[in-house]
Design a protein that fits this description.
Blueprint: H1 3-32, H2 46-56, H3 79-91, H4 104-112, H5 115-124, H6 140-154
Helix pairs in contact: 3-6, 5-6
Length: 155
């Protein structure tokens, strides 16, 4: 290899080395430049925060409020049909320890506690029974009418 070839390769290596050093210095300087807003945290930008909140917001909302069922026209409540649709699943079969409709032995001690206690248990729930038997759409007066029906049928 001639002297001129060695000189060319040495010069080429020095130029490439200088370019690599220049590239690293340029990257370090670019990363440390201020962004104009005074903060390097892009997430602190209010527009970014608003856009992020809009993207992760739920599509819909669940309405958990209860709707009270209105009494039928004339104010009369059909306690038997309400019992069939709302209470029979447990009180007709004895599921979860519920006293069966018409079983005088199971109802005797419960009736002895008084109607106010039975109303309270039916409206607010008691042990395994959820409030209003799981039918939050029933009004308190409807539940009381069904309790009266169940007591009458179980005496």
């Amino acid at each position: 290899m001639s002297h001129s070839d060695k000189s060319f390769f040495n010069t080429l290596i020095m130029v490439i080395g200088a370019l690599v050093v220049f590239m690293f210095l340029a990257m370090i300087i670019a990363n440390n430049l201020p962004t104009g807003s005074g903060s390097n945290d892009k997430n602190a930008d209010p527009m970014v925060q608003t856009a992020t909140a809009d993207r992760i917001a739920p599509v819909g909302k669940v309405n958990t409020s209860t709707v009270k069922a209105a009494a039928p026209a004339g104010g009369a409540v059909d306690a038997k049909s309400t019992y069939q649709s709302a209470c029979f699943a447990c009180h007709g079969t004895g599921a979860a320890g519920a006293p069966k409709l018409g079983d005088k032995g199971e109802w005797k001690s419960r009736i002895a506690q008084g109607m106010d206690t039975l109303f309270d248990h039916a409206i607010n729930g008691f042990k395994g029974m959820p409030p209003k038997g799981g039918r939050g759409d029933l009004g308190d007066d409807v539940v009381k009418a069904v309790v009266k029906y169940m007591v009458k049928e179980s005496k």
